[in-house]
Amino acid sequence: MSTLELAKKIRVFLVDDEPGACSLMRFILEAESDMEAAGSRTKVAGLLDDLAQHPTDVLLIDLTLRGEDAIEAIRVVKLARPEIRIVVLSGCMDPKVLGRAREAGASVCVAKSFEIDATLQAIRNAGTSLPSPAPASKDRLGDRRGEDTERVRSEIAGVEAAAEHQASEATSSHRAP
Fold it and tell me: Longest Cα pair distance anywhere in the chain, in angstroms?
């Protein structure tokens, strides 16, 4: 495969709390001539670090991550990496929930089902509508990028802490008196 062909591949990063779902989606993506798996995670924690280390065009994220707020993760990723398109997979097609995901920065929401063609088409649509990034100007950005990254990392830490707190409250409320 030529360098030009490799450059055309849509790089997809996966987030799903089910390791098997990540593995299956990786396998499916690698079978597509125009896509490749950039990486995967089963938790939101560390996502920005992974996205910084793995060039990514499209983030494919499960909306129902156990113990984590995927909508907040979408918002944080869009703040830190606005060039990444986000495709949401969801078993819940509640218009209010999907509307919140779009407001947070999701490009498209797709039903999580066995119909993989709809998911692949959503990735293609998101991946081929990528804007050409504006050149970063030191005068325009100054040193704010580092400050913004730290602010976003702090927000993620807050989301993780809130999820841990919710999990511990749920555990303590189910204990017998």
Answer: 66
Residues in Cβ contact with 99 at an 8 Å cutoff, skipping those fewer than 6 apart: none
What pLDDT, on a 0 to 100 scale, did the predictor assign at position 83?
95
- Quote the Cα angle for 156-80-161, to 5°: 0
Residue 67 is predicted with a pLDDT of 87
Closest by CA position to 120, among listed 41, 47, 60, 80: 60
pLDDT at 62 over 90: yes
Owner of token pair 């920065």 = 105
Specify the pLDDT at position 42. 94
Domain residue limits, the chain: 3-173
Query: For the chain, percent helix, then strand, then coil, each to nearest 5?
Result: 55, 15, 30
Q: What angle do CA 109, 39, 68 make, to 5 degrees?
A: 55
For residue 126, the SS3 value is helix
Any bridge partners for residue 108, and if so which?
Answer: 87
> For tokens 């793995």, what's the residue?
54
Question: pLDDT tens-digit profile of 122-166?
Answer: 999 998 875 433 333 333 333 444 454 455 555 555 555 555 555
What is the fold, at CATH topology level, of the domain defined by 3-173?
A: Rossmann fold (3.40.50)
